[in-house]
Design a protein that fits this description.
six-stranded mixed sheet; alpha+beta
Length: about 475
């Protein structure tokens, strides 16, 4: 374990608890001078001291996590890239300064990230309203983020793990005597015997205007209608989602109330997101799923057959396995369409792509569209030097019938290189070869790589060296 200097965080914790250095040193069984050296970053915060802190003050050790620091560093790189331009900042901020800010003053760093996001949201909405001026004059400019962005940030802050719902789902899985891979029949019985709700696959209930609708609950008739296009595992997930609002309503409402959300739309989306999380936890119960994942070396197809679910559902669930004391590989999960729109983004780790200006075309999640149905692997290195193993594959959601357009996405699942040996997808890859990873970035507007063959436009905040004798950037023609 490398030396970890967390002096400012420790000092802030002590001040929050109203303790002097002498009092805290006595609680930890160390000398006041030693504690002072830790707070001044002259000595590292050791594992032993961290465990004593947890025992004496009930502190979550995640508060001193280096992964949290890395997540903040990634967010701050956006702030001092694109965000610096919004603020009119001319002076660049180095990577070393960003890391120092994240390590020493994380609260300040998080405040800067929140301010930059509000500024970015305001700019985007101002541009949108300017484009619509004349059609919609009466609508006031809103500066708050879109509801789905607020909900995404809520899950991101929790490392994509909701312990309360995981624990409840696991207890109910056992209490209802459900079986992995065969949960659908048990959930249908639960709905009818306890709640008086019949489950039917009704093609007539889903017309042309219901594209994307998979579940419809008729309260008056007490009937849950499921789309006939759903596979058995998808049916189980939709039944589990309905049961979430019936059996886990109190937990969901409590979690939604704790979230800092600005609108009723965001709160409704949060409740839906939490219900979906509960459904995944019920169909893929934590301990059974984690044990199978470790035994099968995180083979997504084998896990899908074991639990009767699809590639996307298994991939999404793998990104949630962060229970303290029983953690899986910390994954980053993403789903994109052919145009590069990210419709799902969940992270148990610090990796993220920029919120500004698209993602990197060298990322293998886009190559997946050229080889539909095939699992692609990629070692990819980011500008900060960290390397990741990525697994990508297309998934399709068809509407059925000739000439009816379907939906195709690419699903990506990534983890830090240090976890790669635990995955079956590492077979044949040169994990120890520094030249093997593909250099990618967080998106052209915030990527500082020079000489990239796929760069679409210069990095935000950088000086543009325009040479009339060069064809590097061609704003017209070409």
């Amino acid at each position: 374990m490398r030396k970890t200097f967390m002096g400012v965080r420790l000092r802030r914790l002590r001040e929050e608890r109203g303790l002097t250095q002498v009092a805290l040193a006595q609680l930890l069984g160390i000398s006041p001078s030693y504690l002072n050296q830790i707070e001044q970053n002259q000595r590292p915060l050791t594992v032993q001291v961290l465990l004593k802190l947890s025992a004496a003050l009930g502190v979550d050790v995640q508060r001193f996590s280096e992964d949290d620091e890395a997540r903040l560093v990634a967010d701050l790189r956006d702030v001092f890239g694109s965000g610096a331009v919004l603020a009119g900042q001319a002076e660049s901020v180095s990577q070393a300064e960003i890391r120092e800010l994240a390590a020493s003053m994380p609260a300040v760093g998080r405040t800067l990230v929140a301010l930059e996001r509000r500024c970015r949201d305001a700019e985007e909405r101002a541009a949108a309203f300017a484009a619509r001026l004349g059609e919609d004059r009466g609508q006031a400019l809103r500066t708050q983020p879109m509801p789905y962005e607020e909900v995404r940030d809520f899950f991101y802050a929790r490392h994509n793990h909701v312990a309360e719902l995981d624990d409840l789902a696991e207890r109910l899985f056992d209490a209802w005597s459900l079986q992995p891979g065969e949960t659908g029949s048990g959930l249908a019985i639960r709905l009818e015997s306890v709640h008086g709700i019949r489950v039917v696959r009704d093609e007539r209930a889903f017309g042309e205007g219901d594209a994307g609708t998979l579940r419809r609950f008729d309260k008056g008739e007490r009937v849950l209608r499921l789309s006939p296009l759903l596979a058995p595992g998808q049916q189980a997930f939709q039944m589990a989602t309905q049961l979430a609002f019936l059996e886990a309503e109190e937990a969901i409402e409590g979690l939604a109330a704790q979230a800092v959300l600005r609108s009723e739309e965001a709160r409704r989306l949060a409740r839906i997101g939490l219900a979906n999380y509960f459904a995944g936890a019920l169909v893929l119960p934590y301990r059974r799923f984690l044990d199978s994942a470790e035994r099968l070396r995180y083979d997504i197809d084998l896990l899908g057959r074991r639990f009767g679910t699809g590639f996307e559902t298994v991939s999404h669930r793998l990104s949630t396995l962060q229970r303290p004391g029983a953690c899986g590989v910390p994954f980053f999960f993403v789903r994109v369409d052919r145009a590069g729109n990210i419709s799902k983004r969940q992270s148990a780790t610090d990796f993220h792509f920029s919120r500004v200006g698209g993602t990197c075309p060298l990322w293998n999640v886009y190559e997946a569209f050229a080889q539909p149905g095939r699992i692609l692997t990629q070692l990819a290195s980011m500008p900060d030097g960290r390397t990741y193993l990525w697994v990508a594959r297309t998934v399709s959601h068809g509407r059925g019938g000739y000439g009816v357009p379907g939906k195709t996405f690419a699903v990506g699942l990534g983890c830090d290189l240090q976890h790669a040996p635990r995955l079956t997808y590492a077979k044949g890859l040169k994990l120890d070869d520094p030249g093997a990873p593909t250099p990618i970035g967080a998106g052209c507007k915030v990527c500082e790589r020079v000489g990239c063959p796929q760069r679409a436009f210069p990095s935000a905040g950088s000086r543009l060296d325009i040479d009339e004798n060069s064809s590097r950037f061609e704003p017209y023609g070409g």
